[in-house]
Amino acid sequence: MNAEIALLKGDWLGPEIVDSSVAVLKRTAQIYGHSFNFTPYLIGGCAIDEVGTPLPQETVDGCLASDCVLLGAVGGPEWDSLGGDKRPEKALLGIRSALGLYTNLRPAKLYPALRSASPLKEGIIGSGFDIMIVRELTGGIYFGERGFREGKYGNEAFDTEAYSVTEIERIGHAAFRTAMKRSRRLCSIDKANVLETSRLWRQTMHRLAEEYPEVEYTDMFVDNAAMQLVRDPRQFDVIVTSNMFGDILSDEASQLTGSIGLLPSASLGDGTRGLFEPIHGSAPDIAGQNKADPIAAVLSGAMLLRYSLGLSDEADHIEQAVDTVLDAGCRTADIIGSQEGSPLTCSEMTERILEAL
């Protein structure tokens, strides 16, 4: 297979971890006889510094011309004083919208070898858990009307959430299809006891559930879901929820795995083109020191192979290589815990994964 892959390395830690993922993808391509061409484009703070905007049109055009996109991380303290439309993070919303990516898949998996790294007690996590959070990505409060106005108590800010039946249906179908490929259990998270958008969400999801009788479907309020993730994460398999709720719950779930540096994500639309990125940020405090954990970026590359290029065996190969190095006791600083010895550097962990391939 020949594939064009756009690289959005981003800021601070972004280039380091993207380089690790690219190295693994290149080795995998060599093993299986594929040809991947990687083309870098600007996004985030580095784009602001170079061309004055966080999402240049050249980047959008390059991503649209590619088979898939691999993203590092954007943002940093030097751009925090910029206005909302000028901040690096605005580029993330923009590129997702430009590519029509409304489904975000965020796995939260606790590896057996890292059970001690989880903040939860052993009796709660058992042998581990494997959750897939399906988050709606281009609607809701992050894309609603916003601004400032004169209110009851003076000047006030407002952000508006709106969801259409169409938006709910398409993320709902994506979640049910995901559940069908796993253990056929789906929990929809909302706040239907308070919010009109959640009432429409629940009504629509109930109607969709009739089309998937093989799936065990349940509803849960978001506040209860936040508690249940801590009380017993093993009760969940696939979770579907709105943009803001998904943003919050997926970060909570990531911490239960022991490190945010382990978890990838995939943003998908109607076609095969997707955007793949680790869920962690740009980490200016450790950038450039070779301390990063590359696993989330490497696993994002595996998701790229599976969901955009249809190369499931190759994706399995990468994931098995990560399992192998973790089982062998290889640890970066974020997951070493009380284990004896010095943590591996980013480049050393990348080399261990390459060797395991």
Question: Would you give an account of this structure?
Answer:
Helix 1 runs parallel beside helix 12. The model has no long low-confidence stretch (mean pLDDT 94). The protein is α/β, with parallel strands linked by helices. The strands form 2 sheets. It has a 10-stranded mixed β-sheet with strand order 2-1-3-12-11-4-5-10-8-9, sandwiched between helices. Strands 6-7 form a two-stranded antiparallel sheet. It is 39% helix and 20% strand. The chain has 12 helices and 12 strands. The protein is globular, with a radius of gyration of 20 Å. A hairpin with a 5-residue loop joins strand 11 and strand 12 (274-278). It has helices at 14-32, 45-51, 57-64, 90-98, 122-125, 165-180, 196-209, 222-231, 243-256, 295-307, 312-327, 346-356; strands at 2-10, 35-40, 68-73, 103-109, 130-136, 146-151, 154-159, 185-190, 216-221, 238-241, 264-268, 274-278.
Shape: globular
- Average pLDDT across residues? 94
> Alpha-carbon distance between the termini?
19 Å
How are the strands ordered across the major sheet?
Answer: 2-1-3-12-11-4-5-10-8-9
Please trace the helix and strand order, writing H or E for each element: EHEHHEHEHEEEHEHEHEHEEHHH
Number of strands: 12
Largest sheet: 10 strands, mixed
Low-confidence stretches: none
| Rg, Cα atoms, Å | 20 Å
- Structural class by helix and strand composition: alpha/beta
Q: How big a fraction of the residues is strand?
A: 15-25%
Q: Could you estimate the helical fraction of the residues in percent? A: 25-40%
Counted by DSSP, the helix tally is 12
